[in-house]
Design goal:
The protein has one domain: 3-Layer(aba) Sandwich (Beta-lactamase). Helix 1 runs antiparallel to helix 12. A hairpin with a 5-residue loop joins strand 8 and strand 9. Strands 2-1-9-8-7 form a five-stranded antiparallel sheet, sandwiched between helices. A two-stranded antiparallel ribbon has the order 3-6. A two-stranded antiparallel sheet has the order 4-5. By secondary structure, the chain is of the alpha+beta class.
Length: 346
């Protein structure tokens, strides 16, 4: 473990390892109890569908250690798909489960939208004090046109819109910022320039919500408005390290993530006292997600991206996210003095 006073890393005592692995095994039992078994024929059908579309190597990534095996077990899912990517930002140690498979971004896309806007602030295109109208969705039928109708609402400062979009997941605030930067194509351009592959935004939030439910993400891979968990980790780590934004813009985004009030039962759900979480949640039909940073009391930071589909309902999806996040935290603490490995975010 790292000594807070001296900064010296010391080996974890075996007793501590056993205690942490005891907690991990307990999490496996909890996760297993959350999944209702499905008939083997149905499970086989789902496996054939995903094997045919993505290949068995993508569906069943190789397991490299006991830690990887534990995470894969907690993230195992018969009633849907679960994707996980994590990176210890100190050691560079990655963990992935279906890390290269697309999952619905839902509102986790708002991180990229806000980052695109903040780049414009850094370039002098607009200021945080500038005011823009909320984009309020108007009534329309599902799939009635490529874009859901919206109308301008209350004027708000850009800083207020950012805080609402991230900390409270406001859709009208997000679409306000998206309209300013030039729509999904402008965000995709920023994503490409950032060197991130496996992430794309196709619709504004009003259209995404209006047409939600077209496909069941537990059974169908829709690449529109999707990300791989590994791509989201690339975005998170780059933002944390200040790769694309000024320090002031980075602080605006990270501060909003620290103030997030949604998803209290997700990454935060099983965190011990003293651990801080800065994150962004996502929720659509039959899918829940949570991405962000876990910071231990001694300052160690882990980037995590967890995407869950199916699992019998939102409470079960939230609980799976919480158990996976705690497994990652405990596993990284056990492996704190392990050798550095190649990071998933290259």
């Amino acid at each position: 473990m790292r000594c807070k006073a001296t900064g010296v890393t010391r080996p974890v005592k075996s007793g501590a390892k056993f205690r942490v692995f005891g907690r991990l095994l307990g999490l496996l039992a909890v996760a297993g109890s959350l999944v209702t078994p499905v008939p083997s024929a149905r499970a086989d059908d789902l496996e054939k569908i995903f094997d045919g579309a993505l290949g068995t190597e993508v569906r069943r990534p190789p397991v490299h250690s006991t830690f990887d095996s534990l995470v894969a077990s907690v993230a195992n899912a018969q009633q849907g798909r679960i994707g996980v990517a994590a990176l210890d930002l100190s050691s560079g140690r990655p963990v992935t489960v279906l890390g290269d498979q697309p999952f619905p971004m839902a509102s986790t896309s708002k991180i990229a939208i806000v980052a695109t806007f903040l780049e414009g602030v850094d370039q002098g295109k607009w200021k945080l004090s500038d005011q823009f109208p909320l984009m309020i969705p108007m009534r329309s039928n599902k799939f009635a046109g490529a874009k859901a109708p919206v109308q301008p609402g209350t004027l708000m400062s850009a800083s207020a819109l950012i805080n609402l979009a991230i900390s409270r997941s406001s859709n009208p605030a997000t679409d306000a910022l998206l309209a300013v930067v030039g729509g999904p194509s402008a965000v995709n351009n920023w994503i490409r320039r950032a060197g991130i592959s496996g992430m794309r935004i196709d619709r504004d939030i009003a259209t995404l919500v209006r047409d939600d439910g077209e496909f069941d993400p537990a059974k169908h891979v829709d690449v529109r408005d999707s990300t791989t968990p590994a791509a989201m980790i690339r975005l998170l780590t780059g933002l944390h390290r200040g790769q694309w934004l000024s320090s002031s813009s980075r602080s605006v985004l990270m501060g909003a993530m620290e103030r997030t009030v949604t998803g209290k039962r997700r990454i935060q759900g099983m965190m011990p006292e003293g651990v801080r979480v800065a994150h962004k949640t996502g929720t659509l039909y039959n899918t829940s997600s949570d991405v962000g940073f876990i910071t231990t009391p001694d300052g160690r930071v882990m980037a995590v991206a967890i995407y869950v589909t199916g699992q019998g309902g939102k409470p079960n999806r939230d609980a799976r996210i919480a158990s996976i996040a705690r497994t990652l935290l405990d596993g990284y603490q056990v492996e704190e003095s392990a050798p550095v490995r190649t990071a998933v975010a290259r």
